[in-house]
Write a structure and sequence with these properties.
heterodimer; A: mainly beta; 5-stranded antiparallel sheet; 4-stranded antiparallel sheet; globular; B: alpha/beta; 6-stranded mixed sheet; 3-stranded mixed sheet; 18 helices; about 50% helix; about 15% strand; disordered C terminus
């Protein structure tokens, strides 16, 4: 368990991501920082040292350690662990990014926003275009690529699925009547989603069927990263109510 | 005795009427039957003007439609009866006319034998209609949702018989889904292609070109824009000042207003304020062709933008404008002929509920015009549209391809909502067991109805096999014995229905078969025919 600065509201963690090598990336209003679980110090990587503050509202790390960070007006991209960055700027009105996800083969990257739906990249994050066919809700809160299954997008009114690499979306029917989906956790073919009313749903078969379930966590995460395996234990890095960031195992 | 004229009516009764009616039916069926299946034969239709090459058609309904009358005037009523059925199926269902023709033929022909054996036509009709209900219910139980894009592609090919067009349409449907708009236009040249357009657009443009003043490309780009929806006349300049002030106070990137008309005074105000505030201001014609259309369009725009429209019908006035009336959009645009929205700020739950209500209306209506209207409305919420450009070598071919594309899109859309069943006539054969059980142990009319329907259910599969060059009887027998099989007429192989992509849209199979059965059942009750002709007046005894 490791702390992330002082617990002031402006420092609240907005997004977490963890690389295959175990580096944890935490995004908040002050920027993007990285830490190894063996260390206690966080290192600011965006903005670079000496640069003005750049709020980072979403972060994702690909399998080849490409870092994507949602910043005001664009998405920043680094291929060298945050040493250098390039950015794709979006035209006005500038979207506010809430979530970013990259496919395991890195062919497709999707960025969800507060009011502008989803932006899609098919060139490794270098360029983006809005792509919202069938996405009936512009407020996207979570995106996850599911093994042998669709891409899932959580929105303020429910879950959507894309079976064609994000080219179009269809609503997924759950019993909850237009409940927001702030959290999607995907581990292999297992998927959990949490609704705004704190209900959990679980799919054992890559999103084909869903059942009500208990939380896969023994603690309540505020923000959580993608699933990573520590030893034989799958889990997420999650920001907790007390301001700590901890590895929280999944209850399979 | 009066001289016969063109309006002379001839009456045929009884057996004479029945056989004439059947001859007419046979003419249409024989023209249409070769087109059934993935390996259809082509029918050449002579043109009215001399010297023109014949039309080559493989669509059963279009072939039937080209036959506007037949030489045998006594048989013409039967021909036109079936022709009308096939065209209605074509218009309302989009496919399945050839299936309907062969099913109709079997039901009518076998039904005539039943009546000759002493069965009362009306009682037989009742039984046959019950059987049609049983078949519809059974097909509904067989239906599976489409989960594989390969099935969409296969369905597309089976409707269009044009691989290039089929693949484009399948791709377009993959993006647009059941409700997303697909606009079909002519391409310049032979190649067909599609383009994707973000957001929704309406065929309503700016009410004044002066609003384009200073804007490049004759198009207003709107971002973070305030929206005022109304179908009122915008006559008083002062009436729009509140919305302009609101836009300025909230640091909006533009103003979008709908209205019925725009006075020169208001135009002058808007142009001046657009320059002063540095805001693009778009005033567009309220969408919709008439009252109901406009109300529906305003309803939809309210949901998309989160605003509340000021309406003539409600007695609203612009001087009563309040904040609650004002909507917002993230991005939009307007030109002389259209305006579009690519990101409305309406409340998402309200939008989802509105869509659910529209979808429910769509499911309840069978009226084609209503369906088109509701689909157009649903499409506005899809957040994108596909424009399919259809290319061809000649204008006539292009027109035909456009018509094929429209039909295919209609069929595929409905398949996405209602599902598919094993294709090639297999699903109808699989209905035999439920028909058999339904009529078990009933009286003579029921036994005849059972026999007729069992024969009719085999006919499409047999015809498909024959058209593909195979002996139909062994294939039909194998399908009857094995409910898990479908026949691939292209390869000649039997395939498992669980792994095969030989499928048909359930609504096409259901509508074509059941409409044919009901229509043939009704035709069996016809006992006299009155037709016109040049022949002498005659009343032929029954």
């Amino acid at each position: 368990m490791f702390a992330f600065d002082e617990t002031e509201s402006s420092d609240a963690i907005l997004s977490l991501a963890v690389s295959l090598s175990g580096l944890v990336y935490a995004a908040n209003a002050l920027g993007l920082r990285v830490c190894s679980p063996d260390e206690t110090e966080w290192t600011a990587i965006l903005p670079p040292q000496g640069e003005p503050i750049v709020p980072v509202t979403a972060v994702a790390v690909s399998s080849s350690n490409m870092i994507l960070a949602g910043i005001p007006g664009g998405i920043a991209l680094s291929h060298d662990g945050g040493e250098t960055w390039s950015a794709f700027g979006f035209p006005d009105p500038s979207p506010i990014f809430t979530t970013i996800a990259v496919s395991p083969d890195e062919r497709i990257a999707l960025a969800g926003t507060e009011e502008d739906g989803i932006f899609r990249s098919t060139d490794g994050g270098n360029t983006w275009e809005p792509w919202n066919f069938g996405l009936l809700d512009s407020c996207v809160t979570a995106i996850a690529f599911v093994e042998d299954g669709p891409i899932l997008a959580g929105t303020s009114t429910g879950l959507f699925a894309s079976t064609n690499n994000g080219r179009s979306w269809k609503p997924v029917r759950l019993e909850s009547d237009y409940d927001a989906i702030p959290t999607i956790v995907a581990h292999g073919r297992l998927v959990w989603i949490q609704t705004e009313s704190m209900l959990w749903w679980r799919s054992p078969d890559s999103g084909k069927t869903w059942q009500r379930a208990s939380s896969p966590f023994n603690r309540t995460p505020q923000a959580c990263s993608n699933v990573v395996q520590i030893g034989e234990i799958p889990g997420v890095y999650a920001s907790l109510l007390d301001g700590e960031i901890a590895f929280v195992p999944l209850r399979l | 005795m009066a001289e016969p004229t063109l309006n002379t009516r001839h009456v045929q009764l009884g057996d004479s009427a029945h056989s004439a009616f059947q001859r007419g039916i046979a003419q249409i069926v024989n023209a249409v039957r070769p087109t059934l299946g993935p390996l259809p034969r082509v029918v050449a239709i002579d043109r009215p003007a001399p010297g023109l090459t014949p039309e080559l058609l493989d669509s059963g309904a279009v072939i039937a439609r080209r036959i506007t009358e037949i030489a045998d005037r006594r048989a013409d009523p039967g021909a036109m009866y079936l022709r009308g059925l096939l065209w209605r199926i074509h218009e309302e269902v989009g496919d399945g006319a050839a299936t309907a023709a062969v099913v109709f033929d079997t039901v009518y022909r076998e039904g005539r034998r039943a009546i000759a054996a002493g069965i009362a036509p009306q009682r037989l009709r009742t039984q046959l209609e019950q059987g049609a209900d049983v078949i519809a219910a059974t097909l509904g139980q067989f239906a599976c949702p489409i989960t594989d894009d390969a099935i969409v592609a296969q369905l597309s090919r089976s409707v269009t018989h044009d691989t290039e067009l089929a693949d484009l349409i399948a791709d377009a449907i993959e993006i647009a889904g059941a409700y997303g708009p697909i606009d079909i236009r002519d391409a310049h040249g032979m190649a067909s292609r599609y383009e994707l357009v973000e957001g929704a657009y309406w065929e309503s443009g700016l009410l004044s070109d002066a609003l384009l003043d200073g804007h490049p490309a004759q198009r207003l780009e709107l971002t973070d824009t305030v929206v005022l929806l109304t179908d009122l006349d915008l006559a008083e300049p002062a009436s729009l000042i509140p919305v302009l002030e609101y836009a300025s106070q909230t640091n909006s990137g533009g103003v979008l207003v709908t209205g019925r008309s725009l006075s020169p005074g208001v135009v002058a105000l808007l142009v001046a304020n657009s320059r002063r505030l540095g805001l693009p201001i778009a005033v567009v014609n309220v969408p919709g062709l008439g009252g109901a259309d406009r109300h529906a369009a305003l309803d939809d725009l309210e949901i998309i933008t989160g605003g509340r429209a000021l309406r003539v019908a409600s007695g609203d006035r612009l001087d009563r404008l309040k904040t609650k009336h004002v909507g917002r959009i993230r991005r939009g645009w307007a030109t002389r002929t259209q305006f579009g929205i690519a990101g409305g700020c309406g409340e998402s739950k309200a939008l989802r509920r509105h869509l659910a209500a529209l979808t429910s209306q769509l499911d309840r209506t069978s009226n084609p015009d209503n369906r088109v209207s509701i689909l157009n409305r649903l499409g506005k919420f899809h957040r994108g549209s596909v424009t399919l450009y259809v290319g061809a070598a000649t204008e006539a071919e292009q027109k035909l391809k456009r018509s094929i594309a429209e039909r295919a899109i209609n069929v595929l859309r409905r398949s996405l909502s209602s599902g598919v069943v094993p294709g090639g006539g297999a699903s109808l054969i699989h209905c035999r067991s439920t028909v058999d059980r339904h009529f078990a142990g009933d009286g003579p009319e029921a036994r005849w109805a059972r026999r007729i329907l069992l024969a009719a259910l085999e006919t499409p599969a047999g015809t498909i096999a024959k058209n593909a060059g195979y002996e139909p009887s062994p294939i039909v027998a194998r399908l009857c014995a094995n409910p898990h099989l479908v026949f691939n007429a292209v390869s000649g192989a039997m395939e498992s229905r669980f792994s095969s992509d030989i499928t048909d849209p359930v609504f096409v199979v259901c509508e074509s078969a059941t409409r044919a059965i009901r229509s043939a059942a009704l035709a069996l009750t016809i006992d006299a025919i009155v037709h016109t002709g040049r022949s002498e007046i005659s009343v032929e005894p029954g």
